[in-house]
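User: Here's a protein and a ligand (zinc ion). What would the complex look like?
Assistant: Let me lay out the input and then the predicted complex.
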Amino acid sequence: NATPAAQGCIFCAIAARQAEASVVYEDETVVVFMDLNPVTPGHLLVVPRVHAVGLEDLDGVTSAHAWSVGHDMARALRRSTMRCEGINVLLCDGEVAYQTVFHFHLHVIPRYAGDGWTL
Ligand code: 5GP
Ligand code: ZN
């Protein structure tokens, strides 16, 4: 269930500023930071402050806000000097869907011609 912080959860720790991250945006509901192992330059993660594992336990209001911030981040990347040519906004829910951190997050992934990244 969605709780304010989960023991041992790295994204809860980052949201609480108890772990290091390159934060690029934050508000009362979400924090956005650079992925530690970016698949392309500028790879961002949009993370609700509340601990929810995935789609099943994240409330709709928080989810809607996270997607909206993801949209804003994608637009900002398109307008930035990163000069990306496309964007993937991606959610991995469940181990078979390549989820590795079990705290809900959206990937905002700038795409460049020939960047070679495949899911
Ligand atoms: P998933 O596969 O769960 O959708 O994605 C988890 C993402 O979180 C991966 O892209 C991984 O590089 C990133 N990640 C994992 N641990 C950390 C961390 O401690 N800090 C940051 N900034 N990113 C992390
Ligand atoms: Zn968490």
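Summary: The chain has a mean pLDDT of 95.
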